[in-house]
Design goal:
The chain is α/β, with parallel strands linked by helices and 194 residues long. It has a single domain, classed as Rossmann fold (3-Layer(aba) Sandwich), CATH 3.40.50. It has a five-stranded parallel sheet with strand order 4-3-5-6-7, sandwiched between helices. A two-stranded antiparallel sheet has the order 1-2. Helix 3 crosses helix 5. It binds 1-O-pyrophosphono-5-O-phosphono-alpha-D-ribofuranose, orotic acid and magnesium ion (MG). The site of orotic acid has 12 residues, from strand 2 and strand 5. Its EC number is 2.4.2.10.
């Protein structure tokens, strides 16, 4: 799929939002990609996962044992990536603020893991989720995501990163808002507590 075709999927799902958003990292943005709306169409979710899987090097696709995603946003695309790659898909979640394995999910030491996210902005959530996987003994080979919106800030996840599409939407610190955002109330669509 081309970048234009992928963005057309977001627009068709009314998932490209404009307003004033407080992001997971605490930064602010005029734009938000609501991946849950893109993925609520199961056929579209499957199509995007197949396209994302095709971005991965063949050797990585063959070597990976398991998909692990950070909840909530990573769960659906992680599951669809598991289907596309023929691998089990589990998730880490953070009911008390730190990502952990629950629900009987386990990672056997040495398991080769592909992390799957919906959106990567600063990479903070990705790094925290990888720490949980490594603490359980998993070996993180790479990360894949639907959207890399870090474009321009050259984040380093510490492993190879394969986004389906990269978009450069500016983000701002709370004390450095542009005039169009200053004085407007930010909404926080994601579920990170702090
Ligand atoms: O790269 P980052 O700066 O960490 O931002 C991206 C993260 O933010 C969103 O999750 P969020 O924490 O909002 O929670 P959710 O997945 O539960 O909605 C998204 O799903 C990524 O996990
Ligand atoms: O950084 C985020 O929290 C974020 C940005 C975005 O565009 N979409 C999303 O789901 N999360
Ligand atoms: Mg998330």
């Amino acid at each position: 799929m081309t970048d234009d075709e992928i963005l057309a999927e977001f627009r068709a799902a009314d998932a490209l939002l404009q307003g004033h958003f407080l992001l997971s990292s605490g930064r602010h943005s005029e734009y938000y990609l609501q991946c849950a709306r893109v993925l609520m169409d199961t056929e579209r979710a499957g199509r995007l996962a197949v396209a994302l899987a095709a971005k991965l090097p063949r050797e990585l696709r063959q070597t990976v044992d398991m998909i692990v995603s950070p909840a909530m946003g990573g769960v659906i695309i992680g599951h669809e990536m598991g289907r596309a790659l023929g691998k089990p898909a589990i998730f880490v979640e953070r009911p008390t603020g730190t990502f952990e394995l629950r629900r009987g999910f386990a990672i056997t030491p040495g398991t080769k893991v592909l992390m799957v996210e919906d959106v990567v902005t600063t990479g903070l959530s990705s790094r925290e989720a990888m720490a949980a996987v490594r603490a359980a003994g998993g070996e993180v080979l790479a990360e894949a995501a639907l959207v890399d919106r870090s474009a321009g800030s050259t984040i380093d996840l510490g492993v190879p990163f394969y986004p389906l599409v990269a978009i450069n939407f500016p983000t701002y610190a709370a004390d450095d808002l542009p005039p169009e955002l200053a004085g407007t109330q930010a909404i926080k669509p994601g579920s990170r507590a702090n």
